[in-house]
Write a structure and sequence with these properties.
2 copies of one chain form a homodimer.
Chain A: H1 3-17, E1 22-26, E2 29-30, H2 37-52, E3 60-63, H3 65-73, H4 82-97, E4 100-101, E5 107-108, E6 110-116, E7 127-130, H5 136-144, H6 147-164, H7 178-190, H8 200-218, H9 226-240, H10 244-253, E8 261-267, E9 278-283, E10 295-300, H11 304-308, E11 315-316, H12 319-329, H13 333-339, H14 343-346, H15 348-365, E12 369-376, E13 379-387, H16 392-404, H17 410-416, H18 422-425, E14 429-430, E15 437-441, E16 443-446, E17 449-455, H19 458-466, E18 471-475, H20 483-488, E19 491-494, H21 502-510, E20 513-516, E21 521-524, E22 529-532, E23 538-540, E24 544-548, E25 553-556, E26 561-562, H22 569-581, E27 585-589, H23 593-601, E28 607-611, H24 613-617, H25 621-630, H26 634-658, E29 663-667, H27 681-691, H28 695-705, H29 717-722, H30 724-743, E30 749-754, H31 760-781, E31 788-793, H32 796-800, H33 802-806, E32 811-814, H34 816-824, H35 835-840, H36 854-871, E33 876-879, H37 887-895, E34 900-903, H38 908-925, H39 934-938
Parallel strand pairs in A: 4-5, 17-18, 18-19, 19-20, 27-28, 27-34, 28-29, 29-30, 30-31, 31-32, 32-33, 33-34
Antiparallel strand pairs in A: 1-2, 1-3, 3-8, 6-7, 6-8, 9-10, 9-12, 10-11, 12-13, 14-26, 15-25, 16-20, 17-24, 21-22, 22-23, 24-25
Helix pairs in contact in A: 5-6, 6-8, 7-8, 16-17, 16-22, 17-22, 22-38, 23-26, 25-26, 26-30, 27-28, 30-31, 37-38
Chain lengths: 955, 955
């Protein structure tokens, strides 16, 4: 070792000597607490908190996330004194449990689990039943009096350890899990069907076979020393922080690599020691509706994995839920009691204990909890608690209820609902009047109503999404590997698992419609079909089905949907609080009177973008538009435009009337003219006949208008400059409409917006012409409506020169769709071929057309705001790109001082809530905390808890 | 009048009382001087300077440009004391001339001319012979003893005044000039052919007819009071500052509106008083070659207009020039003496005087002068002197000669040549070997060699340019109205006029090939043909001809051209001085070994852009490239690329060898893949046969690759990200070439450049891969060439995030073509439909693809340089867009601290000179003046004098 290395080592030793790396908990005491979740990870911190609260928690200790960072910084080594601290922690567990780790007759068994600052469900690895070897297994037999149980534990442990710690995965895509293959061979040899039929001896033989396989594949014998096992498992957990799944997940969720994971080592308790044992998951309120009712699933004589893996369909915790299920399945009360009695009736003491604990936890955390528990011979143990993920409806209901229950205040309630979640409340519902062919009924796991083609694998779903086909992913069950496919699908349908299955949790997190546990369907992956049990009906990949995620119903074919409204009293209460708080105004992008009505009903405070060209496509108008385009002279164009003016005027009257008293920003004609010509030769020929012109002339015109890069071509104000008559006609229509309404006593606030301005002079020229037309119309109509003239900021140059352009503009509106395309040099229409690679390789943190590229486009916007307002104080500035409905972008718009955001009508409530969030986050950043309770903030809960795709097969 | 107006008037009066608005000159004295050209305009300032020098200048006075500004600021009024100052000035002129303005027997006649700070030839108006009426004309008869002369002056005056001051223009496009119509009618009535055949009575009758027409058309009688005439003319000159032609000209030449024009009122002298009178234009050196020889044209018994209007072909000033002309025209010495004797022989005294004055003026101004003179009965008068516009060859020769003559220093010499002018020295010359059909010979007016279709009007030339047809504008003569058409044409051919005709001057200014005075051609505008006199050969509009502007030859059809070199000793001297001075390095954009050779011969100090995709098109390679594109798998692509690597390697060996010791920036593959597929269905079918694949597959591939906006699509480093094998193959080829050359002792400096980077992470990923390939090749080849890895800055986001991107880049190169397209949202390919409107309406000061948009794109660049160097001190930064060869852009690049510019090989000398100019301009801006003589700087001369299109029909 050279001197440098020695010095480094000494420094590290010195520094680490002062550190506590291991936090113990158990027997009503804990070194840690919930607020230390940044150091202990969510699992370890909450176990410590529960221990402190005096709740029954198996004793254990948590190795901190700092050790994880140390492990990666110093070449997979540990701080020198870690081993002493672990030994001390182990002693305490042994003392509380009265057992000894590695002891031949009274052995302590341990679980080793990961736990990051925020939940990363299923992303990292876990080892259970650690401490077993050929000696200690006899001690477990002595403790349990159950050799079969002991060998089953031993078998599970070796299998899990081989997989997780020693990396024994299938060696090729076609190879099955090697352990499962040995089990299958054993079953075949013993001519049995189920695992449960194995005898203790069978299981013992499996342990030997597993160990042999491990030795053969890895070249080293299976470690029998429990301490070696423990350090191997700890290392494996730390290593799993950087496995491919975890890295991808962190990138998707913007979790910093430096956070690291903690490792929680805990005494094992067993829910599989017999029929007086059970294990389960409980939620303190209904995660679908938000109703204040304890609920959840459990399994008798099982370990935790069995509940969440969806292999056995679990029983309900409450009697009422069990009875609802029976009603749904058409099952008699007798049958129900026989097949799936509730915990409430089967283990009433356990149920009462659980209920009390649930109440304690919810009151303590002031939020809905998602609890794991195990009952070992009637003794209830708490294995985990965390903030529960929930549907948007539940999030809103719980947040508002908890304000009424005085658990939180209004501002906390607002933060409890992630704005994007509201999308779920705005999801379409099935048209109640439409004819439907119901083919099955499952559990309503995530609301919404969707139709799509059946696909049977995540890969197929991803592939379909690339070609923009809408698909429903149909699986027996889903696993964390399926996340991308689930995201790509319109909806999820599984035939196994309950409301807490992976499929259900992830779908809710994604706000994606899902029906789970639909057991009447039989999937044949090989044939790519599913059959409706007991019928001849077989559907194939590619067939259309429709899901109703709110009822759990599955229909054949496409069922029409209709738009829902956010009209529950709790939604209204929450939005009222949000509106009171926010500074940003929220407008809608609406081109039609109908859109304008919808927007207003969703709370829009104006129209931020009314695209006039859409009006050009309606009905017969396209003929007049084409006549205008084909005219070779100004006179010809004017003649054609004169036909269009009265039609546009009628549109403007309807829209301005619908938005009475509110501003309506009307964008003048924007697209290139060739977009209005027929694309196929056949259509061109028809048009020629209709217009009585030679088809050759139309061909020529199409060729003349053809553009290599139309986005950067002859469009927007460039048309206004070269063909002044087009804008003049539009402005005439707008002002005539405004005058007419004004005369009849209706207040109208039209804002005339010029698109694609890059140079001040463009706007000066057009502004002069527009103002001239307005003055003429006003003079002739005898009414004086207020109006203003402004510009889009959508060309990068316009942002760079905002100080100059502001001199000619009454307002700015950021057109962030085009601004993003030009600033990033990225055509949205053409980026599909590489965007997935760009997101997966971390070049784009997210799709820049979905959420503003803050570093690039955002910087341009921020400086344009400053420059514009430096020249024109109080310049009104908004955004009308699609980013106006994206919560992160709304927050940014708030921070740079925009006056309003404008988004599609269905995103108005999201933007309203996001604008309120922005105020609260700003207050927090400035040191004001809206939280009433320390614990609610420090539990690491993500507000609303619903934005992470989730599963917890290995928590 | 309200109080405000009164106060304003008082203020104006008070301020203006202190001001001198009128500057007199004459009789060896002057109030003004050349350095006051900002106040007096160029004409007035130089007349004052000449008067001070004691040269024979008709006395006069100049009303300042401040009066022009006053005139526009205060509603076309004058400062109150102006009239008194004008009266005083008039007294002095009367005194010097011994005549009285408006006097019946001894009248003083005046000229009233415009004069802006820089010459705006023919843009503003002039009135001659002012002061004539029915009384004073008799005085003029008395003075001249020549009634016909007097009435001809009167006729000219009324006609000119009617046109310029009273606005009597043709009333419709089809109407001819109304005065000319009266003249034609008179000729018909009198049955005569030429104006010269009119008697004094005829002319008197014309005056009456003109006045009658004026009264009829304008409703007011012609002003007979000479003072009314004077103020009318002064007002007309000021008004002409804002006529349409002048406004357009100022915009094109970036002349501020606030400069205004002066008005010079000067005593008339007459070159048309008889055969002992003459008028002419002289140049102190040869404006075509730069030879130190007085030269020019004159006409006996003529007024100035007659020389420049090209109506009569003038005689030569020197005997040598006259003889050269005779030689060219195959004219005997006797014939020559008879038809066009030189001034030198016809008026030897006048010639000697002129020669002496020319010498005085050139020494005084230390630059070549363009002089107007008139000889009235043997008395030589100087009417104007100004810096002469000249060809590039002459500019270089004069500048270098004048250094050798100790008239100027090297730095002044450098500033004397406008970098853009060098283009002329680089113009193609006709292939000497090519067969040619000579059809005519004219005067070599502006060098170069061009071919094009014949057009007969400026409008046709402009229209042709819009469709990118190359045309030659063929005219009897040109006028200032033709400027746009001349600019649009490849070359100019006129059948009348000499080396100082409008056509010649403007063409030289534009650096456009021109042949003038080609009298053997007879143009028939109506038939749109010209006939070669004395032959049957008739060419029509649309026929191809070729001009040689260096010999004056005109050829039928297209004659192949070959590239010239800048190899004159004076060019070499000038470039050596420039190279010594400049800081910016100059590289070339070169894709082939041949281009690289040419670039080096032009002084390129490296290659700034070697586009590798061009190599993909050569010969059979396209097949391998298409095979790669059509491959559906990585393996398939790699297999195809393996065929391309050896070919590219051979290219890189040649290029790197040609640029031994100099850096070569190689840009990795950039264009979208679909550019390599055949565009027509027929070609696609052929390709399918060639590759033995179904044509349907190729159709599908083409559809898959189709992009709506390919510029913003899947290209550049995006291909590198999605198909790593493409860049890996290219880098392999580059490094294998570099290693091979290094092993054989040749120093190579490859710089590997990644295109279209927008995000730091793109460059990080690719840099890692590129460095890995380089390391592998180096390891396997046993040679260690230096190399670096950098990026284009061509996406706006890259410029905005330059600080981040710099961390992963060894160098930046601004790709200003794409940066301009994206920042301005402007597709170069598609902008043709509106760019002309944009330039003509002043939205773009110039084509942003020709000269950098400094306010927008420039701002991005400047901030990117700062950001990049803040992170990586001394980061090497260049530019490789086409702006790298534009002088204004080069200056900007110097100012923002770039290390080099890179441009097309033929623009390398321009960039070298521009870089030297940038240094000198910077020094001047910092207060250091390179000028040796005040007068050279203060004469308002544009360095080199050659960039303004010019004519002087009304100077």
């Amino acid at each position: 070792m050279d001197t440098d290395t020695q010095n480094g080592l000494q420094k590290r030793q010195k520094r680490s000597r002062r550190k506590r790396y291991v936090y113990s908990f158990g027997a009503g005491q804990a070194d840690g607490r919930a607020s230390l979740n940044w150091l202990l990870g969510g699992k370890g911190a909450n176990l410590a908190e529960m221990a402190e609260l005096g709740l029954p928690v198996p004793p254990g200790m948590t190795v901190t996330t700092e050790v994880c960072n140390y492990y990666y910084t110093y070449g997979h080594t540990y701080p020198p004194e870690l081993s002493q601290q672990v030994r001390t922690g182990l002693r305490r567990i042994e003392k509380i449990m009265g057992r000894r780790f590695g002891h031949a007759t009274n052995p302590l068994l341990l679980s080793v689990r990961s736990g990051a600052r925020v939940s990363m469900p299923g992303m990292m690895d876990t080892v259970l039943n650690l401490g077993l070897n050929d000696k200690t297994v006899h001690g477990l037999i002595q403790q349990s009096g159950n050799p079969r149980f002991a060998y089953d534990c031993y078998r599970r442990f070796v299998q899990m350890y081989g997989d997780v710690v020693l990396g024994l995965k299938p060696q090729s895509k076609t190879e099955r899990d090697p352990f499962e293959r040995i089990i299958e061979e054993k079953k075949a040899a013993r001519e049995i069907e189920h695992d449960t039929q194995f005898t203790a001896e069978d299981l013992q033989a499996l342990v030997s076979a597993f160990k042999g396989l491990i030795h053969e594949r890895s070249g080293i014998p299976f470690p029998d020393d429990p301490h070696d096992q423990l350090w191997g498992a700890v290392g494996a957990v730390f290593s799993s922080w950087n496995n491919a799944r975890a890295v991808t997940y962190r990138r998707l969720e913007n979790i910093p690599d430096e956070w690291g994971t903690g490792v929680t080592v805990q005494a094992m308790v067993f829910g599989n020691l017999g029929d007086d044992c059970a294990t389960g998951v409980a939620f303190t309120r209904d995660l679908s509706t938000g109703a204040n009712e304890l609920n959840g699933d459990f399994l008798i004589n099982a370990q935790g994995e069995d509940v969440v893996a969806g292999i056995r369909t679990p029983q309900q915790i409450t009697l009422s839920a069990s009875r609802l299920r029976a009603q749904r399945e058409g099952c008699s009360e007798e049958e129900r009691k026989e097949r799936y009695p509730a915990l409430e009736e089967q283990m009433p003491d356990c149920f009462e204990q659980l209920k009390a604990i649930a109440h304690t936890l919810e009151a303590h955390y002031s939020d809905v909890q998602d609890i794991e528990f195990t009952s070992e011979h009637g003794q209830l143990w708490m294995l985990q608690t965390r903030t529960a993920k929930r549907t948007a409806a539940a999030a809103v209901q719980v947040a508002v209820d908890m304000v009424y229950e005085s658990l939180i205040n209004e501002e906390q309630a607002i933060l409890r609902v992630a704005p994007a979640q509201l999308d779920q409340l705005l999801h379409p519902i099935l048209d109640p009047e439409a004819p439907k062919e119901l083919i099955a009924r499952g559990l309503p796991a995530s609301p919404g109503a969707v139709s799509g083609e059946v696909v049977f694998s995540a890969e197929d779903a991803e592939a379909a999404a690339q070609t923009e086909r809408q698909v429903i992913l149909v699986r027996i069950e889903t696993s964390p590997e399926d996340i991308n496919g689930m995201n790509a699908a319109e909806g999820i349908l599984t035939t196994r698992g309950g409301a807490s299955s992976h499929a259900a949790l992830v779908s809710r997190g994604m706000g994606k419609c899902a029906v789970v546990g639909c057991e009447s369907l039989e999937i044949d992956y090989a044939q790519q079909t599913f059959q409706v049990r007991g019928t001849d009906l077989i559907l194939r990949a590619g067939d259309l089905i429709t899901l109703d995620g709110s009822t759990g119903e599955v229909f054949r074919g496409r069922v029409p949907t209709s738009a829902p409204r956010m009209e529950s009293p709790s939604s209204k209460a929450l939005m009222t609080w949000a509106d009171r708080l926010r500074r940003l105004r929220v407008r809608a992008n609406a081109d039609t009177p109908r859109d304008a009505q919808v927007a207003r009903s969703f709370g829009a405070e104006g129209i931020g973008l009314c695209r006039t060209e859409h009006m050009f496509f309606e009905g017969d108008r396209i003929d007049a538009v084409r006549e205008m385009i084909l005219a070779d002279t100004t006179i010809g164009r004017i003649r054609a435009l004169e036909k269009i003016v009265p039609m546009q005027k009628a549109d403007f009257i309807s829209i301005l009337r619908a938005m009475e008293g509110l501003p309506v920003t009307i964008r003048l004609f924007d697209p290139p003219l060739h977009e209005f010509l027929p694309q196929t030769d056949k259509d061109l020929e028809e048009l020629a006949n209709k217009l009585h012109v030679p088809v050759a002339r139309l061909h020529t015109k199409r060729n003349v208008l053809y553009e290599l890069n139309p986005m950067l071509g002859h469009r927007g104000c460039r048309l206004g400059i070269t063909f002044p008559e087009i804008y003049e006609a539009q402005v005439t229509a707008i002002m005539e409409a405004a005058c007419e309404l004004t005369r009849s006593g209706i207040t109208v606030l039209p804002e005339i917006m010029v698109p694609l301005v890059g140079h001040k002079r463009e706007l000066e020229i057009l502004r002069k012409r527009i103002a001239h037309v307005c003055a003429e119309v006003i003079a002739s109509q005898g009414a004086t409506p207020q109006y203003s003239i402004g510009t889009m900021i959508e060309v990068p140059r316009a942002a760079l020169r905002a100080d100059h352009i502001a001199a000619a503009a009454d307002f700015f509106s950021f057109g962030t769709n085009d601004l993003t395309q030009m600033t990033l040099g990225l055509s949205r229409d053409d980026s599909g071929k590489f965007l997935p690679d760009y997101v997966s390789q971390g070049i784009f943190p997210q799709d820049p057309f979905g959420s503003l590229d803050l570093d690039g486009v955002g910087e341009l916007m921020a400086s344009a705001v400053k420059k514009g307002r430096a020249v024109r104080e109080g310049l009104k500035i908004g955004i009308c790109g699609e980013h106006g409905g994206d919560p992160a972008s709304v927050e940014f718009c708030h921070n740079i001082g925009l006056d309003y955001v404008s988004c599609s009508p269905y995103r108005v409530p999201i933007a309203r809530l996001a604008a309120a969030h922005a105020v609260l986050k700003e207050q927090m950043a400035n040191g004001r905390r809206p939280a009433r309770k320390e614990s609610a903030k420090s539990s690491g809960a993500i507000p609303g808890g619903g934005v992470n795709p989730s599963g917890f097969s290995q928590r």
